[in-house]
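::Amino acid chain::
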Amino acid sequence: MRPEDLARIERQLRDEARREGIAHFVVGVAVFRHGKLLVVRRVPDDFHGGMYELPGGGVESGETFAECVERELFEETGLRVRAITDFLGGIDYATRTKSRVRKFSFVVDVEPGEVALEPGEHDAFAWIDAAAIHDLPMAPDTRAAVSALVTDPN
């Protein structure tokens, strides 16, 4: 995606969320390698501990969604974004501390490299395809999103 397209999409998403009273944002990052999707497992004592999810995290004040995608992916996996290639949509959910958060997910192309997990957040990772999706514990909304990704030929 071109940077100006990402900026336009972000303006639209932020405006819509503001109208709906949502002020907290999270990004999810879909990384594919050899036709398989990267998922990471949250440490046991964290929110959704032991569950697999897409890498990602909270958008910081003054940060664009694209900047957050790059930062969170690097912090959580050690992988560097080459380009954001697609916007997948958004979902709303609640956390322990926030009644409503909107998560936006993006597909990225990454530089070559090995996954190096941030030890305090994730303790395992897997490259999965449609056959492996049901073997891993996931929250229902995550499973639905990940299922759509691995059954869609990318």
The chain has a mean pLDDT of 91.
